[in-house]
């Protein structure tokens, strides 16, 4: 069983908080992101710690990901066609780069349940093995699709 550090829960609540002052705007002006990133304390430990949080969105998170270290990410996304139709949605992602050892990959698939006990509320879950799997435009598109009706005419078919 994996254990999560206490600051992971604090960071989770911060990302979910509507009054958090940190904002990061996507090239699409209808989306705003807040994020947190969790990683294992070390190669042999099952302790999962907060390795970062911030307002740099997916691009910042992607700079912190290592092909040899698995991670879990949680991103707040505000999506809408205009000011009156803004909705807050959350994206949960699991990172398992190509260099992650076999035993860690196996444990990752089990420990995801422990992480989800803390990071409980999200609309979309993504498993990523390459940085391309976390392309901003794709993530925003998945979030929009999870919302149901979309009237902005952008290809969500």
Protein architecture, described:
- By secondary structure, the chain is α/β, with parallel strands linked by helices.
- The protein has a single domain (3-146), classed as Severin.
- Helix content is 30%, strand content 27%.
- It has 4 helices and 6 strands, in the order E-H-E-E-H-E-E-H-E-H.
- The chain has helices at residues 6-16, 57-64, 102-118, 136-146; strands at residues 3-4, 31-40, 47-54, 71-79, 87-95, 124-128.
- It has a 6-stranded mixed β-sheet, with helices on both faces.
- A hairpin with a 6-residue loop joins strand 2 (31-40) and strand 3.
- It is globular, with a radius of gyration of 15 Å.
- It starts with a strand and ends in an 11-residue tail after the last helix.
- The model is unreliable at 21-32 (pLDDT under 50).
The number of helical elements comes to 4
Which residues sit in consecutive blocks of at least 5 with pLDDT less than 50?
21-32
Strand order of the largest sheet: 1-3-2-4-5-6
Give the class from helix and strand content and strand pairing. Answer: alpha/beta
Mean pLDDT over all positions = 80
Query: Into which percentage range does the β-strand content fall?
Result: 25-35%
State the end-to-end distance.
Answer: 40 Å
Note the run of SSEs as H and E: EHEEHEEHEH
- Per the CATH scheme, the topology name is Severin
- Can you name the CATH architecture? 3-Layer(aba) Sandwich
Rough outline? globular
Measured as a percent range, the helix fraction is 25-40%
CATH superfamily: Severin
Nearest-angstrom radius of gyration? 15 Å
Family: Belongs to the actin-binding proteins ADF family. Coactosin subfamily.
GO molecular function: actin filament binding
Subcellular location: Cytoplasm, Cytoskeleton
Keywords: Actin-binding, Cytoplasm, Cytoskeleton
């Amino acid at each position: 069983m994996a254990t999560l550090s206490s600051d992971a829960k604090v960071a989770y609540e911060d990302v979910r908080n509507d009054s958090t002052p940190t904002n990061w705007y996507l090239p699409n002006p209808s989306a705003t992101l807040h994020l947190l990133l969790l990683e294992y304390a070390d190669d042999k430990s099952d302790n999962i710690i907060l390795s970062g949080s911030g307002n740099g969105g997916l691009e910042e998170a992607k700079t912190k990901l290592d092909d040899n270290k698995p991670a879990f990410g949680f991103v707040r996304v505000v999506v809408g066609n205009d000011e009156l139709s803004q909705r807050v949605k959350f994206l949960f992602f699991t990172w398992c780069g190509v260099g992650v050892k076999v035993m860690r990959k196996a444990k990752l698939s089990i420990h995801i349940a422990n992480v989800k006990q803390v990071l409980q509320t999200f609309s979309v879950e993504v498993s990523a093995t390459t940085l391309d799997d976390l392309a901003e435009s794709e993530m925003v598109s998945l979030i929009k699709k999870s919302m149901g009706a979309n009237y902005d005419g952008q290809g969500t078919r």
